Predict the 3D structure of the following.
Amino acid sequence: MASEEPVFDHEEASVHGFELYEGTQLDVRAVISGMPKHVKDGFLLEEVAWSRFGHAYGSGHDVPERLSRLRSRDAETARPALDLLWGRVVHQGTVGSVAPLTVPFLLRIAADPSAYGRAGVLGLAAATARREHWGHGTRTTFLRVATGTAVRLRRLFDELVRRSVTQRRNR
């Protein structure tokens, strides 16, 4: 019996919390932070495990095709791709688990002067970062896990508080 690829389960996460997947291959934040630069810069969409994560209408397996079409200079190709991505990954105020995976690619499309509808692409990237992830998490949580910056800042803050307390005691 062949083993099946693990898939992010929104119902499990809503019952048991997103911590269930923290640090695993189903933690989209860890997947993004571990995504090599050459995959993002080279637009190597086949290197990303899209089907592990979902959107409003099911598996994210269809997202790479939409992103590829979104890179087009042609409005007739790019516009429907953007509309479909909006309807799937940011749907009625909710962001699917696949949405954050699109951000590195959306930003590269928005930065490409030859791409059609760059402002709309940038808007979609911003929406994935600002909306809730299936009712849980926030942009701050996403960025904290993806970059580790908040952890480092918290350690620095704690150290500064300890020093301040020690200095006051020694006065």
